[in-house]
Design a protein that fits this description.
Order of helices and strands: EHEHEHEHEEHEHEHH
Helix content: 25-40%
Number of domains: 1
Largest sheet: 8 strands, parallel
Distance between the termini: 5 Å
CATH superfamily: Aldolase class I
Shape: globular
Bound molecules: D-xylitol-5-phosphate, zinc ion
CATH topology: TIM Barrel
Mean pLDDT: 97
Radius of gyration: 16 Å
Number of helices: 8
Strand order of the largest sheet: 1-8-7-6-5-4-3-2
Structural class: alpha/beta
CATH class: Alpha Beta
Strand content: 15-25%
Length: about 220
């Protein structure tokens, strides 16, 4: 199944609730929430209070991307705020296995594992059978609006190959620089969860969302995922 996860980082926070509803009306079922701590990544975005307040007014699937050092400190808090899946960075955790156990076991949420563009995809292999989603970053994490790193395409293919070879039910998410011009390419490479910030929230939100949903259904009909 192909899923679109619009990233609110590129949204106008003055009208956030309504803008998220626009994506929902146009068919989106997920929302991507980028939490940045100013340490693991240089920028600071938003945290618990925002997610908690969005949760009150939304039944969408909350895809929380933690760009936070020592993520185990925050698993319980983000679970309580309404996350449906919690994705943490392999590079940010001293004991990734323990973070996975905390997310699934203690918090009862789905588990995502993210890798930066410079981290070999094979480093995720020891955890692949314990996660629900592998996030292959297609830009350096930290800011929206960056350009897709071309070398990511081979990394998506590699990730998809590892999952297929092992017959695992693990989603492959891509995040960063995804646009109308490269959506087909990342779907062809094997991604099935597509994060898009600027490409959704800059301009006509409904029309942008519909465009991405349409590409997703074309690929689904063609038999990808
Ligand atoms: C970057 C974030 C992304 C960001 C993507 O560190 O993880 O989710 O919002 O934004 P665009 O789609 O504008 O590259
Ligand atoms: Zn993200």
């Amino acid at each position: 199944m192909i899923i679109l996860s619009p990233s609110i980082l590129a949204a106008d926070f003055n009208c956030l609730g309504n803008d998220i509803k626009e994506t929902e009306k146009a068919g989106a079922r997920w929302v991507h929430l980028d939490v940045m701590d100013g340490d693991f990544v240089p920028s600071i975005s938003f945290g618990m209070p925002l997610i908690k307040s969005l949760r009150k007014n939304s039944d969408l699937f909350f895809d929380v991307h933690l760009m936070v050092r020592d993520p185990e400190r925050y698993v319980r808090t983000f679970a309580d705020c309404g996350a449906d899946i919690i994705t943490f960075h392999l590079e940010a955790a001293s004991d990734p296995g323990a973070v996975i156990a905390a997310i699934r076991g203690e918090a009862g949420k789905k588990v995502g594992l993210a890798i930066k563009p410079s981290t070999p995809v094979a480093e995720a292999l020891p955890y692949l059978d314990r996660i629900d989603m592998l996030l292959v970053m297609t830009v350096e994490p930290g800011f929206g609006g960056q350009k897709y790193i071309e070398a990511s395409t081979a990394r998506i293919q590699e990730a998809r190959r590892y999952v297929s070879e092992r017959n695992l039910d693990v989603d492959i998410e891509v995040d960063g620089g995804i646009t109308k011009d490269n959506i087909d390419m990342v779907l062809d490479a094997g991604a099935n969860v597509i994060v898009a910030g600027s490409a959704i929230y800059h301009g006509d939100i409904g029309a942008n969302t519909r465009y991405f949903m349409e590409r997703a259904s074309v690929h689904e009909a063609a038999g990808n995922e």
